[in-house]
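call fold(seq) -> tokens
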Amino acid sequence: MQSLTSIEDLTQLEDLLSEPSEGVVRVMRELRGDILILGVGGKMGPTLARMAKRGSDRARVPRRVIGASRFSSEGLGDQLQAWGILTAHCDLLDADSLVKLPDAENVVFMAGMKFGSIGLEWQTWAINTFLPGLVAKRYRDSRIVVLSTGNVYGLSPVGKGGSREEDALNPSGEYAMSCVGRERIFEHFSRANGTKMTIIRLNYASELRYGVLLDIAERVNTGQPVSLAMGYLNTIWQAEASAMSLASLAVASSPPNVINITGPELLRVRSVAEEFGKQLGKPVPFEGAESNDALLSNACKAYELFGRPRIDSQQMIVWIANWVKRNGATLAKPTRFEDRAGNF
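ret:
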């Protein structure tokens, strides 16, 4: 895959994003029961669901992969069904609807609210903190993978090499605080009911349509200044993040097994922007100044469990630059990674 100089269209992109790793195939072979993905309609959900299906098929294990969502995006349900994924329309905050969802021995919880949380703090807390309690009660006998965020750590000194799973949490802003709430509620029910869980603290999954690298590339391409307020970052190719998340079903435990997922490279925003400038043939204006801390995570534990990522930042930059040159489709959802106060 690293020999690819460009990704030509959405079909090829979605094929690559849903390609199961050997680790995923192995876990799908050993795992028992169906897989239910709650909040499948998000940025990472569809290709993660497809990876679970492809991995199960490759392992020759018949199982249902079910995606639950309100399906507000037109055509998503049909696309998932075309990939062999069953769909369940559900407002997850409605307890009556939640209880009607099918039983599943394995659950991936991807529901959450980040963007638009300012001004809708009440809804942010309901989705990020109240909903986990409903899900943990409904699926108390399942294995549960909980998608969380590295934002719970707060800013980390650049020289430290990133926050580790055992570090104290220091969330900044309502979004990050509500994500700590999400983790604590799941942890309570894991301890109370013996439910096996993993909590995935993800920092910046990137693909061609979304992610921190795309944000920087689009700014360079349109001549907008690149902010240096958050001067450093980690990111990981979305397929790698999905593979590690699915593989983490095999290491779920009570109390929850907490795992950071991100790329191994400490990336300097200035250097990334200058590389995009080189790839796109554009000058790069900057604004602001670098600080000595940033939102950074150390994912060594994940690499010990699942192996190191195969796709590095340079490969992602080449693919994204080529995509931007050709005006490839995007989700038009900036990450706002440069916001140091955690206001989303």
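The mean pLDDT is 94.
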